[in-house]
């Protein structure tokens, strides 16, 4: 049975924890910091309940000593006021959680169970380490060995030194700007300037001025001459992101630059020459836009001479573990989490099974959020956002046992019970409904009992009892044993 150490000089608290938590853990108590630390060093505990105000030492100082002894032990602070500055400081130091006094039995039990579970999971070797000696690499795009990405690398190598316009296509978040920077880095213009403009981020009139510049008095607010990006980037590389969002009037001027390397400032009559390599990117269907009259066909042809297609992350899921390690090690340094060891195998399985609609950008955001939120050395499924754990569960095929639970449905069940002359219909129908609802919520949370209990509005202990009584099996998918 797991073991819990309670350090508190309040006898009532010690008695309450022994009585309420004795069924889930062996509870040891200590009335002083010195006694608690002595027991901690002599024993093997899965979690610690620590009072902030102790007679011989401040709880925060005791916490620091516990961390020095074993950084994996989750420590739950107990405090008179949950919103106190001391409690906030405890969380900043890396405490597992805190709970307000007087203690409420059900929340206390749930919190201790969760801490013990995290301790046990943290003892499992990590599947992906947060330490990566290659994490200083500058471009996450080049992390991956899937065939789709190898094709991208080959394409970059073939055209980087060729002074031709290039169109990079792919869904949002796949890393199109990284491809543009790689093309620039390996080009003959790598010593010259590189500028990027997001065409979707500027109104049409401002975009035209941003690209081509304007003369003084060209429009209201033009109080002086402005040099545009084509002029600034002479001799270098200009990356036009989201080029499918460019207005037709701007499209015509960009086409002229591509053809003749000539343009005029807004409000000007003088023709200017430039020498700019253009790399464009879009996630929009330009061919369909041409058919609809929203995009110039001649501009598409000029841009589409060399096209690099970036695959969505769902088409190269084999690259996800390498990307996770890269983002994990970066976030570990950025958020100063020296004790972070990595991701548990279950967490990695969930991340590699998810289809990532937001692509690499979404994966990076998820890993950063997990690292920021975790207070344990190992990130477990509990630390993953619900869109990752939930969608994975929903995407799984319905099993035969799930069909057995859902069965013919409640109306048919009630009819069958009536035909059999049941004298306990209400209880049997209610049990059917409860079993079905619990099984469905567990599937939604991928078997995560903490999340399921929160959604159901019951304690985790009560959920565990129902799982046992309804013979719900938590395997790769949630199953209900036949005859349950």
Summary of the model, kept short:
It contains 21 helices and 17 strands. The protein is an alpha/beta fold and 484 residues long.
Main sheet summary: 5 strands, parallel
Q: Helix segment count?
A: 21
Strand order of the largest sheet: 2-1-3-4-5
Gyration radius over CA:
30 Å
Strand content: 5-15%
Uncertain segments of ≥5 residues (pLDDT<50)? 135-141, 391-408
How many β-strands, per DSSP? 17
Roughly how many Å apart are the termini? 28 Å
Average pLDDT works out at 83
Any idea what the shape is?
elongated
Structural class computed from helices and strand pairing: alpha/beta
What is the helix content? Answer: 40-55%
Supply database-style keywords:
484 residues, alpha/beta, five-stranded parallel sheet, 21 helices, 46% helix
Can you walk me through this structure?
Helices cover 46% and strands 13% of the residues. The protein has 484 residues and is an alpha/beta fold.
Which SSEs are present, and which pair or pack?
Layout: E1 3-7, H1 11-21, E2 26-30, H2 33-42, E3 47-51, H3 59-69, E4 75-79, H4 85-93, E5 97-100, H5 105-122, E6 128-129, H6 147-159, E7 166-169, H7 176-185, E8 194-198, H8 204-212, H9 229-232, E9 237-241, H10 248-260, E10 262-264, E11 271-273, E12 277-282, H11 286-291, H12 297-303, E13 307-309, H13 320-334, E14 342-343, H14 345-353, H15 359-373, E15 378-379, H16 386-395, H17 400-406, H18 410-419, H19 425-444, H20 449-456, H21 460-469, E16 472-474, E17 478-480
Parallel strand pairs: 1-2, 1-3, 3-4, 4-5, 7-12, 7-13, 8-9, 9-12, 14-15
Antiparallel strand pairs: 6-14, 10-11, 16-17
């Amino acid at each position: 049975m797991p073991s819990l150490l309670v350090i508190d000089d309040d006898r009532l608290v010690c008695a309450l924890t022994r009585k309420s938590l004795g069924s889930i853990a062996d509870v040891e108590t200590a009335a002083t910091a010195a006694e608690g630390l002595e027991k901690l060093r002599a024993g093997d505990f899965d979690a610690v309940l620590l009072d902030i105000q102790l007679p011989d030492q401040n709880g925060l100082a005791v916490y620091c000593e516990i961390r020095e002894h074993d950084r994996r032990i989750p420590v739950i602070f107990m405090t008179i006021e949950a919103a106190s500055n001391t409690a906030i400081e405890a969380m900043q130091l890396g405490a597992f959680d805190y709970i307000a006094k007087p203690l409420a039995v059900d929340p206390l039990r749930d919190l201790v169970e969760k801490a013990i579970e995290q301790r046990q999971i943290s003892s499992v070797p990590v599947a992906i380490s947060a330490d990566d000696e290659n994490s200083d690499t500058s471009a996450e795009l080049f992390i991956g060995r899937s065939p789709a990405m190898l094709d991208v690398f080959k394409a970059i190598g073939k055209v980087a030194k060729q002074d031709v316009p290039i169109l990079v296509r792919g869904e949002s978040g796949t890393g199109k700007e990284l491809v543009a920077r790689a093309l620039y880095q390996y080009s003959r213009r790598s010593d010259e300037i590189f500028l990027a403009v997001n065409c979707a981020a500027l109104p049409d009139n401002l975009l035209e001025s941003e690209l081509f510049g304007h003369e003084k008095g060209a429009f209201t607010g033009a109080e002086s001459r402005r040099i545009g990006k084509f002029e600034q980037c002479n001799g270098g590389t200009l990356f036009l992101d989201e080029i499918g969002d460019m207005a037709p009037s701007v499209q015509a001027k960009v086409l002229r630059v591509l053809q003749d390397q000539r343009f005029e400032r807004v409000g000007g009559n003088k023709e200017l020459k430039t020498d700019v390599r253009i790399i464009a990117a879009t996630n929009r269907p330009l061919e369909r836009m041409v058919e609809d009259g929203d995009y110039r066909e001649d501009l598409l042809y000029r841009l589409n001479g060399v096209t690099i297609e970036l695959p969505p992350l769902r088409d190269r899921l084999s690259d996800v573990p390498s990307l996770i390690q890269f983002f994990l090690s970066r976030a570990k340094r950025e958020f100063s989490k020296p004790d972070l060891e990595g991701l548990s195998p279950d967490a990695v399985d969930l991340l590699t099974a998810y289809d990532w609609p937001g692509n690499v950008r979404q994966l990076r955001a998820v890993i950063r959020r997990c690292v920021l939120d975790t207070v344990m050395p190992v990130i477990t499924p509990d630390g993953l956002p619900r869109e990752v754990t939930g969608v994975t569960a929903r995407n799984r095929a319905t099993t035969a046992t799930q069909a057995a639970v859902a069965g013919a449905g409640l109306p048919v069940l009630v009819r069958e019970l009536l035909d059999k002359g049941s004298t306990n219909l209400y209880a049997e129908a209610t049990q059917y409904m409860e079993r079905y609802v619990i099984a469905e919520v567990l599937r939604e949370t991928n078997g995560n009992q903490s999340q399921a209990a929160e959604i159901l509005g019951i304690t985790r202990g009560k959920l565990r009892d129902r799982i046992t009584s309804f013979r719900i099996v938590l395997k790769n998918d949630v199953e209900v044993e036949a005859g349950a």
